Amino acid sequence: MKNEKKETRGGNRVDGGFYLNRKTWDLVTVNGKKGVLPGVADDLYLKVPTLAMLAAAPVLGATLVVFLPFVGFVLFAVAGLRKVAGLDKAAKAAEPARETR
Tens-of-pLDDT digits for all 101 residues of the chain? Predict the structure, then answer.
């Protein structure tokens, strides 16, 4: 079995694949056989196996499809409640008047 390092730092030359930035949770793809990870030496990356990405992609997509409508309903309800409670008018009254020419 190949003994490869799972963690590497930004700016290093690495094998192609998927890498997760542990600080910002960004997923970076390195195309081709070799490539350079973006960032500085302080950025720590974790190599994600390709099979794990293939298994996780449909799960993450399904989660987005299921929960995105609920986020829209909540934002719509909050905007309606702000309108009914008059919180919108208080913010507009605090704005200074503009002079027109």
Answer: 455 567 899 999 999 999 999 999 999 999 999 999 998 888 999 999 999 999 999 999 999 999 999 999 999 999 999 988 887 665 555 566 677 77
Helix (H/G/I), strand (E/B), else coil: 54: helix
Tokens 């720590």, residue located: 44
Burial class (CB in 10 A: 0-12, 13-18, 19+), 79: exposed
Reported pTM: 0.60
Secondary structure (H, E, C), 55-95: HHHHHHHHHHHHHHHHHHHHHHHHHHHHHHHCHHHHHHHCC
